[in-house]
Structures are given as C-alpha cells and as structure tokens.
Amino acid sequence: MSLLEVTALEAGYDDALILRGVTLHAEADEIVAVIGPNGAGKSTLLKAVYGLVTHKGGTVSFDGTNVTGMRADRLTRRGLNFVPQTDNVFASLTVADNVQMGSLGLPKGERKDAVAHVHALLPILGERSRQRAGTLSGGQRKLVAIARALVTRPKLLLLDEPSAGLSPQAMDLVFDQLVEINELGIGIVMVEQNARRALALAARGYVLDGGRNAIDGPGAELLNDPKVAELYLGGAGTTASSSTSTNTPSGMNPAT
Ligand SMILES: Nc1ncnc2c1ncn2[C@@H]1O[C@H](COP(=O)(O)OP(=O)(O)OP(=O)(O)O)[C@@H](O)[C@H]1O
Ligand SMILES: [Mg+2]
User: Fold this and answer.
1) What is the CA(47)–ligand 2 centre distance, in A?
2) What are the residues whose beta carbons fall under 8 Å from the beta carbon of 183, sequence distance 6 or more?
3) Tens of pLDDT along 66-79?
C-alpha cells in the first residue's frame, strides 16, 4: 500500500461537485506532479485530501489508515501537511516566529529540536530569521511557508503551486529545495502550472481535466507524450529543464 492512496475521490463546495472521481498515489520517496488546465480541480484535490472541502465519495488512505474526511489538524499530526498557494505566511511576523508557529502542534518538548532541524535544512531561514516575512522576496516567502509545514515533521507534503508568481531564479531555489526535501524521504505531491518543470522533477505525473483523471504516467513519459504536449503543455517542446518553458494553453500563466 502506498503512503498516500486516493481512490475515486469526489468532493466539492456546497452543492457543486468538482472532483468527479480522482485516483492517485504517492510514496515517501517520490515527487508527484498534478497538472491540468485552470479550473480542472487541482487545488480542490489537495484540499479534499487535506479535509478542507466537502467529501462526497471515494477514499483517502494515508500511512495505512483510512483518513477520508479527517480534519486537517489531525492529518497534520499523522504526518500529512498542506501548503496553500497564497496566504501561507504571517507577513507581520518574523521568519523565526513563522517557523515557530508551525511547531505549536507538536508536544512542547519536541518543538525546539523540530525548529532547529528545519533551520538546518533551509539555511536561508537562519540568514533572515529576524526579518518580517512580509518583506521577503516571493521565493523566500514560499520557503518560509514550506518550512512551517516541515516543522510538523511530515511524511508527505501537499504543495499548491510552489512556483507561482516566482522569478525563474526564485523558482530554481524553490525547486532545488523541494528535491532536497524529497531526498530526506519526505513525499511531495505538488500542483503546478509550470507543468514542464514539474514533470521533469516528478516520478509520476497526473493530468486532471474536468475534475477527473485524464492521463497519468512517469513524469518523463508525460513530458514526451505528444498528446500531453499538445493538450496540456502548450505544444511540442523538449525544453523540460528550462524555466522559460511556461507557455501553456487554457489560460495557464507563465509563473514569472
Ligand atoms: N470556494 C469555492 N466555492 C465554490 N466553487 C469553487 C471554490 N473554489 C473553487 N471552486 C470551483 O471549483 C472548480 C475547480 O477549482 P480549482 O481551484 O480546484 O481548480 P484548479 O485546477 O486549481 O485551477 P487553477 O489552475 O486556476 O488554480 C472551479 O470551477 C472553481 O470555480
Ligand atoms: Mg489551483
């Protein structure tokens, strides 16, 4: 059984059914990319897994337990955490205080070690520890948000568009850090508009369309699949590692 197993998940908002049966799995040693056009239900998928939207069908299992519909704070305690696309740092607090906030769900005796561990992982936090998060660059802010999630000692992180709004340079910083985090054995499921870049890193990719699975497979395979390229990557192209290859159809924004 996989660390995260999502099976035929249906979810939505009030009466609206948005996810119409999505299936996905992820392991602790994997980066998994979820891509697809605007409105496909990518963010809703992450929120549904993390217990933030109304569950309407299907199952989520995490680390061997059926956690379908479980509250977010309980999932965090079990080792699953979520970094939303926006509103993910406290702008008026310092970097150190933001990270500290993330540790509050841990037993008191473990907080200091957990914070120190994350500072060792992301040295940039130490350099900026007294700076207010609102005055950081976009990439740095994103890393603080990821740090806040990491401090809860997750086994798997759900990341909604970690590269959105970042310059190519900041994007490199964030993606490099994600690879390092994953190398420590922390699984990552990331939704990305920057689909080529995400697929290039991903063990597996899932294309969502209309709230359903459209295509999935190894990241490299999807990158080279002409149908995926035509429908979801903005035409043919093999510049998988180029941070400028962000032109995608269906209103996907270049994340620069
Ligand atoms: N809070 C909400 N209340 C009602 N409908 C919502 C809400 N959030 C999203 N939706 C609807 O759910 C559908 C899927 O939205 P979602 O945000 O999951 O798409 P997405 O794939 O993440 O798109 P994007 O690439 O633009 O971020 C859209 O039709 C959207 O209008
Ligand atoms: Mg979204």
Assistant:
1) 10
2) none
3) 999 999 999 999 99
